[in-house]
Amino acid sequence: MTFWSVRESLSMANRLRRSYYELLRDDLDQFLLKYALIDSYNNFLNKNAAYPFVEKRELKPRTRINDIEYESQNTFLIIFIEDSIPANHKKYIRFYDINKTTKDNIIKSKTLPLDCAFDRSQKFFDSARFFDFMQILLPVDYALLIQRDPASKTNDRYVLSHFHVRIDWPVVEAAENLAVNLRYISKDIYEKGDKYAEDIQKKFFEYYGLPVMAGGRRTAAIVAAQYFKRNPCITTIYVGSSGSRSLTRISERGVSKAILMKFTEDEINQIAASNYISYNSFKKHYVVAKDKKDNICIFQAIYTFTDHARPPDDGKLRELRPDLYWQAVEGQFILPKPRVWKYPPLPYNTIYS
Q1: Nearest to 135, CA basis, from 220, 95, 78
Q2: Which of 28, 119, 285, 294 has its CA at a distance of 20 to 30 angstroms from the CA of residue 262?
Q3: What is the pLDDT of residues 202-255, one digit of tens each?
Q4: How far apart are CA 240 and CA 245, in angstroms?
């Protein structure tokens, strides 16, 4: 069961929009891999501080981790929606006139550097300066919203329409919505008692690959991901936090996490040989930095939902069993450097090694 309209059910016009959206999303992926991971690494270097690499165990589903906040880590929350958000969603998603990306609003917020000229076209995704504009706004608290420009009647044009976007849907309602869809409750999260309701909220965090005590930005991300399931279009949520040191991406495909990982020279040789790539090509196209004798690459874990986190085939109510896993690792890859054109992700199973 899907919550969005699959490609085969779309009109030809909307299929073209879906294709365009996915191309733009690929571009956004590349920009954010650099901003979230490589730029953060360089922030640490510039302060002569050791980079806190993510341990493999932190990528396992349901791992409990004590988050440490790192000031040098780039943080952000981005909502990228395939269509325009209808106005009736303003009750829970705060995108008002006051936080539109207009010159007056941005100047009032003191977000725009004084020496930076404002070009109203730079907020459109097809602008050559779009990512420069986004980089100015990314450090702003709360979320950025990218959506189809409601004013583009004849073509599909995407715009960074709002900043300072807040997600005001309560966590308990998001968890309740998920539990109803998965048939663990019929209507109300408290219908089987307080303990059952607490367990459902814990499983809600597990569903999206977060520890229960995850910080506000990551919690806002998973609440937004659940909220936008009520729309028949695709939404992609990107979140980077100072505790996780990762780029988390939530989409119709599920959840993925990208981190920086160290590899020895021997490991590099083995990976290159097993993928029929020369050592020099691997170093050129996959290694993003050096740490003493180690090579640093971008590693991505892709997660899938277990049967317990999918609606039951018979549609009947079922009992929640908190001990059962809701997530499993589906894929593990070493990613090419951002903007590398001809080299693909390389399979590399290491989380459980």
Answers
A1: 78
A2: 28
A3: 999 999 999 887 778 999 999 999 999 988 899 999 999 998 999 999 999 999
A4: 7
